Amino acid sequence: MIDQSIFQKFDFFFTSDIILMLFNSFEYIFLFLPVTLAIYFVLNHRGLSAVGRAWLLLCGLFYYSYWNIFYLPLLVASILVNFGIGHALSDAEGVLKKVPRMAVLWCGILFNVGLLGYFKYTNFFIGAINSAFETHIGLLKIALPLGISYFTFIQISFLTAVYRGVTRESNLLNYSLYVSFFPQLLSGPIVYHGEMMPQFTDPNRIRVNYDNIMKGVLMFSIGLFKKTVIADNLAAWAVQGFDHAHTLNFFEAWFTSLSYTFQLYNDFSGYIDMANGVALILNINLPINFNSPYKATSIQDYWRRFHITLIRFLRDHVYIPLGGSKKGDLRLYLNITVIFIVAGIWHGTLFSYIAWALMSSGAMITHRIWNKSGRRMNRYLAWFVTFNFINVANLVFRANSIGDAWKVLRGMLGMNGVMLSEKLGGLVFLKAGGITFGKWLNNIGGDKYYLIYFIIGAALIAFLCKNARELSEEMKPNIRWALFTGLVLGVGLIHMTQVRVFLYFNY
To answer: What whole-number distance in Å separates Cα of residue 490 and Cα of residue 210?
Structure first.
């Protein structure tokens, strides 16, 4: 059996010395974004809409190269190759008229998958070979290019849409902007060409829209608050519990898992809110990618709310081509398992991602069988079961190894004992039940008791409050909404003392 820990050092993701212009950075909020917006709308105001699109393209390329300019040619080359393949697919009477269109499509898909596979999985396979056969093949010095998982899937979706006759694009500027639009370039959503580009060429969307600016600023502010105030604070317990603690008692394990579950919620939804907000200021509506998933009352409902565009892509490009639900139950269950395994591999090379995929597919299959039986569960009980399954699945997803996941799960099951704070000595009678008293959160940073309030607050927001998109739709131009937006934005800015990378930048 291959040791999971061997591969941890082969994941060349992010280190502390990498320079990024994140949404939650001062240079992005107070320099890059104002300059980008001002010049774009000035150009459009002067009737130079094509130049305005070119400006957005340059801003997207600059935003990408700010991380590492040496990876800019990779993005540009990917755009040019896919544009050429898309043009060949749409021009059946062109120079490639003697080549089957299906062959051209598969060449494009293999190019994109090969590019993603080289950067994301080469060292994993080298490590697997070295471990299995005791060889000593040298690892390649490969850094994972930012956003490659996203712009790869975006361009595969474009090629398949052109092949099906759903869309076409003969303008290189428009296509390049579609792929490199900076709000969604690094962490999604995974947008389809047909829902994106018509908005850029719509004459009604090139002017300043103060209503959209107002709503966009609100969404951006809520996203910033989620990231800097909630997610980044909860990361303290999650990191300590998963990565540093050797053992966890009952409460330490539950606070570790819940910290990550709500960190993931606020980190990912925060990014999406900020991306949607900036896009809306530019009069562009990105597809919904995150719709209050912790309110779900079934695992199927959850996956209709979480990372919506990834599931849509896998449905359209994997699940349906495999036959979907039209070839019998066994084939259906196999297809469900396949799309979740693809989703797991898409996230990375750790075996815990495969375990997470199998857990998720098993839950989906169980839900299908349950529904088919005609049984129904109380709505609140269904929500409770769904959320707790998600919480356990998240800890498997987060863990660096299966062993780390089991460490947390053992604690959650009480297998390492239950400890209460020594300050609760008045409950000493509980010792008869095996409960001990002491520094009850010592293994995850016992001095951070205030994080309990962050977990409670995050839970109330996730379970009871409307999300940023819903709030933006209700927003009115009045003092009350202005004060609310200013308060949320101000608190989010105050907490930008340490800029942290978004979790989904790792994928």
So the answer is: 21
Q: How far is CA 277 from CA 33, 250, 392, in A?
A: 12, 40, 31
Cis omega (within 30 of 0) for bond into 100: no
pLDDT at residue 267 above 80?
A: yes
Average pLDDT over residues 102-125: 91
| pLDDT tens per residue, range 163-184 | 999 998 889 999 999 999 999 9
So what's the pLDDT on residue 71? 87
- Rounded CA gap, 64 and 75, in Å? 9
By CB atoms closer than 10 A (0-12, 13-18, 19+), residue 302 is buried
Domain residue ranges in the chain:
4-208, 212-506
- Kindly calculate the radius of gyration of the chain based on its CA atoms and give it in whole angstroms: 24
C-alpha atoms less than 13 angstroms from C-alpha of 254 in its C-beta half-sphere: 14
Check 45, 347, 367, 495 and give the catalytic one: 347
d(CA 434, CA 443) in angstroms, rounded, equals 19
* Per-residue pLDDT at 41: 96
d(C-alpha 153, C-alpha 317), whole Å: 10
CB 237 within 8 Å of CB 259: yes
> Distance between CA atoms of 192 and 198, rounded to whole angstroms?
11
Enter the pTM of the model: 0.90
Tell me the pLDDT band of 97, cut-offs 50, 70 and 90. Answer: low
Work out the pLDDT band at 94, boundaries 50, 70, 90: low
3-class DSSP state of 136: coil
- Beta carbons within 10 angstroms of residue 428's beta carbon: 11
Measure the CA–CA gap between 277 and 217, rounded to whole angstroms: 6
Residues 6+ apart with CB under 8 A from 174: 53, 197, 200, 201
**CA-to-CA separations, 111 to 217, 223, 277, in angstroms, rounded:** 38, 35, 33
How many angstroms separate the CA atoms of 414 and 453, rounded?
23
CA angle 239, 246, 388 (to 5 degrees): 60
Distinct helix (H) and strand (E) counts, the chain: 21, 2
Mean pLDDT of 414-419: 88
What is the distance between the alpha carbons of residues 12 and 67, in angstroms, rounded to a whole number? 15
Q: Does the annotation count 367 as an active-site position?
A: no
